[in-house]
Amino acid sequence: MYAKYFTITQANKLLPVIKEEITALKDVQAEFNELWKTYQQLKDGNHVATDAGRIFKLESQLEFMEILAQQHVNNIQANGALLKGIEPALVDFPSFKGGAEILLCWKEGEETISYYHDTKDGFSGRRPL
To answer: Domain of 51?
Structure first.
């Protein structure tokens, strides 16, 4: 049982908001990955005591990036959508079809929601609406 259920129209109307959140999440992820590489290089190298401040700053930035990423995930979930993947982005929207609970399924690159799957099947069970 989910907190919110969508019609296909409602889910499609929400897609622009979801896409914005996913784009922002991917931007945060890319920046995190770059900072992580720098952090690992400093930690793995023969750093001198003067690098301690730089390492601390990177750790703080990485922690902040994690908070930002979680905020974008929370924003998606607050709308009632279920983020299932980031690369590629996969989002499910709880719904009903013929009285049965289903998940409307959107994959990044698709203009609108055109597929669904049973709640137990997952992405591999996608079928056209």
So the answer is: 8-128
Helices (H), 48-101: 51-78
Number of compact structural domains in the chain: 1
Sheet holding 127-128, edge to edge: 82-86, 89-97, 100-107, 115-118, 127-128
Provide the pLDDT for residue 44: 78
2 belongs to a structural domain: no
3 in a domain, yes or no? no
State both tokens at 53: 């401040």
Closest by alpha carbon to 18, among 85, 88, 111, 83?
83
- pLDDT tens-digit profile of 67-91? 999 999 999 999 999 999 999 999 9
Q: Comparing 48 with 79, which gets the higher pLDDT? A: 79
Residue 1 lies in a domain: no
Cα–Cα distance measured from residue 66 to residue 70, given in angstroms and rounded to the nearest whole number:
6
